Amino acid sequence: MSSSQMPRIIADDETIEQFTHTTVNGRLIPRSNEDYMKLCLLAYRFKQAVKHGVNLVLRGIPQKEAYKELAKILPSSIYGETAYKYAKLLVEGARNQEQTNGNEVVVKRINTRRNWIASRGGVTWKGNLNIRLVSTDKVMVRYYNGEWLEFKARFGKRYIPLLNDLIELSNQKKTSYGIAISFRNDKVYVHVEVPMWLYLKYFSTPRQKGYGLIAGFDINSDRLNVVVINEVGTIIALKTFWYSETISHGFPRNKAKWIRLNALAEALKWCRRIRVDYVVFEDLTRIKDRKFTSNPTANRKIAKFPKKQMIKHGVIKALKLGFTVILVNPKGTSSSVTHRQIMREKGLDRHMASAFMIAYRGLKKLEEQ
Predict the structure, then answer these.
(1) Which residues contact 76 (CB under 8 A, 6 or more apart)?
(2) Helix, strand, coil percentages for the chain (3-state, nearest 5)
């Protein structure tokens, strides 16, 4: 697929940075019990470094000093740098889920019980300095005192050509990849961050010739509303995809996630069937804090609904289906004078009015290109 045919994202540069990579998952198999125990020790110390990093972030310790402090715990300064960045993300995420920025509340929200390891990528390091994807069936992990641990790797067959390409480009110092290692049920898993452009080269559907239609997605905890408009803003189609059972108290979290993502996939397939060219989502990087209410039931739904993760999944899925994705400012799309006016003039409920506003803002952003 040529670069002109590749799916793309229209958004601010800061937002596009959130979608530069996607993850390919696989298994790691230790060659000996000793290597497995060493990996477990490294993962435990990485977790401790992240915990310490959380305290450094909350205390406002300068970044360079924090790197040096964490590097004392781990076998490489890049491990320490990665641990600090994880800690910073955990603190920001915990603050976004609370109505207060109190440090005690933030610490209680952060869960670092599981052991894991991560190392950011670097082009000059031929991909990664600490955890190297030597081949599609071999991974090397930097340990203490210059020692390297060797593990067998297993990935799905469909990812092998992609990973071979990634390894070749990394060895030529043309790209890089971050890697994380996690543990679950006594098994070891590896998670490789692949550049989005390379991933889409192998997994995106060829772009179909559409009618220039634009679909606005309004994602809520119990439903997904889609409004499709043409190049002059006229509504062509609209549809609601329900998953209201997922907000019931005690509903299994993993099952709720599967149902919501399945509804999102169905909505995107519906858009493809009616020849939509552009899919518009809210740019939630512009929203730093969740807005809570005085209603505890509503607050529970807000806190448990992973809207950012769902939109990120939707963006990647839309790119794979060949859509051009547009991300717009969500301010005022759910409650504003314009929102109420659209409800009255077009006879839409508040969720459909939000989807229309999102689609219309996508149209205006497209006209600016």
Answers:
(1) 119, 129, 130, 142
(2) 50, 25, 30
DSSP-derived letter for residue 110 is: -
Residue extents of the structural domains in the chain: 19-203, 213-368
Identify the pLDDT of residue 323. 96
Structure token pair of residue 311: 């939109």
Residues 6+ apart with CB under 8 A from 299: 292, 293
CATH code for residues 213-368: 3.30.420.10
**332 Rama class: left (phi>0) / alpha (psi -120 to 50) / beta:** left
At residue 293, what are phi and psi to the nearest 5 degrees? Answer: -120, -175
The 3-class SS string of 306-347 reads CHHHHHHHHHHHHHHCCCEEEEECCCCCCCCHHHHHHHHHHC
The answer to which of 60-69, 134-143, 291-300, 329-338 has the lowest mean pLDDT is 291-300
**What's the residue count for the chain?**
369
235 in Cβ contact with 348 (< 8 Å): no
Q: Where are the alpha helices (DSSP H) in 225-293?
A: 253-273
Q: What pLDDT, in 10s, does the model give residues 204-253?
A: 998 888 999 999 999 999 999 999 999 999 999 999 999 999 988 889 98
CA separation for the pair 1, 199 (Å, rounded):
12
HSE of 85, CA atoms in CB hemisphere, 13 A: 11
326, 10 contact by CB (below 8 A): yes
What is the rounded distance in angstroms from the CA atom of residue 126 to the CA atom of residue 175? 8
Angle, CA of 72, 76 and 80, to the nearest 5°:
65
d(CA 215, CA 360): 9
Helix (H) or strand (E) run with residue 121 in it: strand 121-122
Cα gap 146→75, rounded to integer Å: 8
Q: Which of 143, 174, 134 is nearest to 36 (CA)?
A: 143
Neighbouring C-alpha atoms within 13 Å toward the C-beta of 130:
27
